[in-house]
């Protein structure tokens, strides 16, 4: 990297040349330090960067990206605060996000530079959650359970429903109950709090976590963020991904611990077992059209043991010829394990939700206790 500070003329400007120092009024110490650091040789800067924390390096990248073109005269004014004498060439020092990326990758290892720059996007913390999503379930479960309950709830609420469920499936039932109730009752965290938590995650979890470097494989989409809105509904979406026994135990716990929250959570849950009372007849054709046949057969086969009403409902709303085909194939299948069967059934409900989101049909609201169920 060119050593602009070493080449810039620190002496009195040439005749007719007017020093432009009006930008100095808004320069902070971070801006000045960024200018000086960026003007060093790559070797000299790298030695300094090696001793800087990620927070300090992040501040440098932020300050440098805020700069516009820095004239030689402005660079001179800043340099005089750090250097006693040098000889310079009149060369502008470009600023901006692209230049910040170029300079930072010269001074720090590529992975570290990309991590810092990624954290600057989306308010400084959005990239962290995508990388947390990639941390192994076991490692993330251990980390989350070591945190205070409000912090743990905040972390889990920022992940996808499926990831949160996978982490909680590794925890003790009592812990899952407490943290999910915390999520359901918790108000959204402030941006400052989220940024502070993301910075801690960066230092404590992501630096050492395998597979959490932020590098995306070709064609891989970032992990979906948990949906905004009703906190109780968010918890309901999470427990949709848990095994049936744990899901039902949590629903019963919420009902007893906080009836209002329990009702919100229950309304958000959609299980394969209850599709026969939640889907309109027209939904069966759309579901069978869009669902992978192998997944459907596995879900139906397991449904013969835990959701006979839903199996009959689906068969009752398609042609007899299709029913005969399905029954012939089902007769040749072995009943899947509980894990495989429930996984297939969750895939079915995922497709149902997608069809609802696409406007294919609407789900029938759950009836309150005491109301007559649909035949």
UniProtKB/TrEMBL annotation:
<dbReference type="Pfam" id="PF14842">
    <property type="entry name" value="FliG_N"/>
</dbReference>
<feature type="region of interest" description="Disordered">
    <location>
        <begin position="210"/>
        <end position="229"/>
    </location>
</feature>
<comment type="similarity">
    <text>Belongs to the FliG family.</text>
</comment>
<feature type="domain" description="Flagellar motor switch protein FliG N-terminal">
    <location>
        <begin position="28"/>
        <end position="129"/>
    </location>
</feature>
<feature type="domain" description="Flagellar motor switch protein FliG middle">
    <location>
        <begin position="138"/>
        <end position="206"/>
    </location>
</feature>
<dbReference type="InterPro" id="IPR023087">
    <property type="entry name" value="Flg_Motor_Flig_C"/>
</dbReference>
<dbReference type="Pfam" id="PF01706">
    <property type="entry name" value="FliG_C"/>
</dbReference>
<dbReference type="InterPro" id="IPR032779">
    <property type="entry name" value="FliG_M"/>
</dbReference>
<keyword id="KW-0283">Flagellar rotation</keyword>
<keyword id="KW-0145">Chemotaxis</keyword>
<dbReference type="InterPro" id="IPR011002">
    <property type="entry name" value="FliG_a-hlx"/>
</dbReference>
<comment type="function">
    <text>FliG is one of three proteins (FliG, FliN, FliM) that forms the rotor-mounted switch complex (C ring), located at the base of the basal body. This complex interacts with the CheY and CheZ chemotaxis proteins, in addition to contacting components of the motor that determine the direction of flagellar rotation.</text>
</comment>
<protein>
    <recommendedName>
        <fullName>Flagellar motor switch protein FliG</fullName>
    </recommendedName>
</protein>
<dbReference type="InterPro" id="IPR000090">
    <property type="entry name" value="Flg_Motor_Flig"/>
</dbReference>
<keyword id="KW-0472">Membrane</keyword>
<keyword id="KW-0975">Bacterial flagellum</keyword>
<dbReference type="Pfam" id="PF14841">
    <property type="entry name" value="FliG_M"/>
</dbReference>
<dbReference type="InterPro" id="IPR028263">
    <property type="entry name" value="FliG_N"/>
</dbReference>
<feature type="domain" description="Flagellar motor switch protein FliG C-terminal">
    <location>
        <begin position="254"/>
        <end position="363"/>
    </location>
</feature>
<keyword id="KW-1003">Cell membrane</keyword>
């Amino acid at each position: 990297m060119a050593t602009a500070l070493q080449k810039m003329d620190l002496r009195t400007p040439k005749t007719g040349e007017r020093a432009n120092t009006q930008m100095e009024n808004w320069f902070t110490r971070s801006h000045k330090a960024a200018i000086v650091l960026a003007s060093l040789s790559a070797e000299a800067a790298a030695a300094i960067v090696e001793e800087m924390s990620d927070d300090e390096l992040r501040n440098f990248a932020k300050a440098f990206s805020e700069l516009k073109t820095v004239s030689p005269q402005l660079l001179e004014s800043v340099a005089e605060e750090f250097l006693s004498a040098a000889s310079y060439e009149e060369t502008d020092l470009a600023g901006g996000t692209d230049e910040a990326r170029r300079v930072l990758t010269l001074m720090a290892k590529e992975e570290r530079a990309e991590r810092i720059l990624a954290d600057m996007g989306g308010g400084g913390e959005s990239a962290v959650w995508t990388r947390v999503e990639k941390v192994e379930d076991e490692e993330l479960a251990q980390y989350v359970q070591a945190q205070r309950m409000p912090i743990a709830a905040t972390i889990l609420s920022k992940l996808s429903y499926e990831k949160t469920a996978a982490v909680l499936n590794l925890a003790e039932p009592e812990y899952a109950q407490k943290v999910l109730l915390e999520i359901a009752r918790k108000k959204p965290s402030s941006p400052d709090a989220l940024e502070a938590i993301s910075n801690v995650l960066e230092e404590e979890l992501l630096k050492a976590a395998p597979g959490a470097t932020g590098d995306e494989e070709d064609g891989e989409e970032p992990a979906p963020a948990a949906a905004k809105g009703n906190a109780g509904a968010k918890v309901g979406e999470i427990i949709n991904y848990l095994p049936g026994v744990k899901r039902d135990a949590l629903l019963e716990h919420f009902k007893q611990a906080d009836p209002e929250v329990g009702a919100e959570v229950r309304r958000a849950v959609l299980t394969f077992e209850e599709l026969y009372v939640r889907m309109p007849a027209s939904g069966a054709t759309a579901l069978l059209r869009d669902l992978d046949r192998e997944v459907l057969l596995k879900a139906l086969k397991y449904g013969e043991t835990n959701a006979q009403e839903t199996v009959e409902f689906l068969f009752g709303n398609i042609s007899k010829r299709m029913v005969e085909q399905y029954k012939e194939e089902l007769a040749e299948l072995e009943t899947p394990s509980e894990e495989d069967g429930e996984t297939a059934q969750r895939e079915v409900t995922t497709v149902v939700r997608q069809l609802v989101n696409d406007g294919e049909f609407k789900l029938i609201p759950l009836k309150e206790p005491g109301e007559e169920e649909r035949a």
